[in-house]
Design a protein that fits this description.
- By secondary structure, this protein is of the alpha+beta class.
- The protein folds into 2 domains: 102 residues; 149 residues, Gcn5-related N-acetyltransferase (GNAT) (Aminopeptidase, 3-Layer(aba) Sandwich), CATH 3.40.630.
- It is built from 10 helices and 13 strands.
- α5 crosses α9 and α6 runs antiparallel to α7.
- The protein is globular.
Length: 279
């Protein structure tokens, strides 16, 4: 197989995005428009016919070229509608230009790496939504059931939010803290996702006050739980339990997968698993 290293300007967006759309392991993080926001200087390894593509999130820090996994991009790696063997994956990895002196990237869940470079297995939690809501609910943990009932008793109301501005302001105040340049990038990503039909903002209100919110990213048969935050009031009222339960209720009996991504923080991993999500 001929593998070409391409700068961003040389990549054909239509061919690339068609590959991601048709790939058995395609995911929203790998579309050109997503990469352009989270990793503006990205490059790629591409087969001649674009049947295999491998994005390279390139950064330059301290005059050193490196590949670093971008924020809000859980997994990348090799994508294709064809079979991806360990041999094909290794062939692509061996073609990564030597100019990149440091590499820390996350392959996707279907990429089975058998090379010699140091690697760490990570966990992602997913919940298949093909069953009825009542059937899925049977897999909830007792703790999750109890917290959902508490949210209902408190009178927490879960609705879809049309305004990305409302969500961005809430996330800035109650989400993960970043420096200003990262917030600019976050706002650009949230706005693009919501304005182009790739994202859905869901909020929880207590007595008219927004107390928890999440942005679900939609694409390639998945609902990705990407941005989520709660105020102290939201934590007290168990609002995020109500939000996730409502997402499952709205999307049950579909061929979608609710992808919580993963977490090395035990309490967050327990939250995901409490809804029946499996690694």
């Amino acid at each position: 197989m001929v593998i070409n290293y391409l700068e961003r300007s040389a990549i054909d967006d239509t061919l690339w995005n068609n590959c991601i759309s048709e790939s058995f392991n395609g995911i929203v993080y790998a579309y050109t428009w997503y990469l352009d926001i989270v990793s503006p200087n990205w490059t790629a390894l591409v087969s001649n016919d674009y049947s295999y593509v491998f994005p390279l999130p390139a950064f330059n820090r301290f005059n050193v070229d490196m590949l670093l996994q971008p924020l809000f991009t859980q997994q990348l790696g090799l994508f294709s509608a064809n079979q991806i063997t360990s041999e094909i994956l290794n062939e692509f990895i061996q073609q990564i230009p030597q100019k990149f002196k440091y590499i820390n990237i996350h392959l996707n869940t279907t990429n089975k790496y058998c090379g010699t470079a140091e690697s760490i297995d990570r966990i992602t939690y997913q919940l298949y939504l093909v069953q009825s809501y009542s059937k899925i609910q049977e897999s909830y943990s007792q703790n999750t059931r109890r917290n959902i009932l508490k949210a209902i008793a408190f009178g927490v109301d879960v609705i879809k939010i049309e305004s990305s501005v409302v969500f961005i302001d809430f996330y800035r105040n109650h989400g993960v803290k970043f420096k200003k340049p990262k917030y600019t990038q976050i706002e650009k990503l949230i706005n693009f996702l919501s304005e182009n039909g790739h994202g859905e903002i869901i909020g929880a209100y207590f007595r008219g006050e927004l107390c928890a919110a999440t942005l679900i990213v939609k694409g390639n048969g998945k609902l990705i739980y990407l941005f989520a935050s709660s105020s102290s009031l939201g934590l007290q009222k168990r609002a995020m339990f109500a939000i996730v339960d409502q997402i499952i209720r709205w999307n049950s009996e579909s061929h979608l997968v609710l992808d919580f991504e993963g977490s090395i923080i035990p309490s967050i991993a327990r939250f995901y698993a409490g809804f029946g999500a499996k690694p």
